[in-house]
What we know:
alpha+beta; FAD/NAD(P)-binding domain; D-Amino Acid Oxidase, Chain A, domain 2; Heat Shock Protein 90; 8 helices
Amino acid sequence: MYDVIIIGAGVSGCAVARELARLELKTAVLEAAPDVCEGTSKANSGIVHGGYDAKPGTLKAKLNVEGSRRMEALSRELGFPYKKNGSLVLCFDEKDTGRLEALKRNGETNGVEGLRILGRQELLGLEPQVGDKAYAALYAPSGAIVCPFGLTIALAENACVHGVEAVSSDRRVTVCACVEEGWLKLTVEDNGGGMSPEKLRELKAMLSGEAEAGKSVGLWNVYRRLLLYYQDDFRFDIDSVSGEGTVCSIQIPAKHAEA
């Protein structure tokens, strides 16, 4: 029995696993592919963004800037490739320098340090191969690059060294989300052991309030939160077949998703 199951061994899943390894928890990471970093993480640009373009006050802005600040120290600690080469946002006409200034103010509001507007000559001094049409640039010295594979593998290895388990099998957890006929539909399906008819009846009785949560407190909390927020304006269903798997579906009116 695990305290925490992390679905997906990409960079986010492996980073979460490493943090949870600090706690007294029994944690496992599930990955459908043969190795870590086999999905979205392997296809990203490897850029450690400075944080100047995220909307001020958002969680993205906060985490972007903080992550950029921490990455160099993390690379030394875990031994993955990292290079702080800075980043440039170019403009190609004098009238567009105002947009660079706005981006600079945005970054400064987010807490990005060292942002500067470079004219043509200073830009050439920093990057001699810049195109002939480049007029000016926003320079972010905190911008950097990493190897996506190196970072993800290092996080996974460190997590495993400290007790997190990697679970390899032919099991699958499929998550689908779509909008159909005015409803936002979320479906989570696995091909695990499933539940017996008796267990499924007990679970549905718990969700309807006819029985106590028992060991299904996590699912009960999900249902109660939906009920608290949406009242009767949502649909929740769960079905399971022993030996085949379980399907859980949640539907809320799309108007709530847009709010």
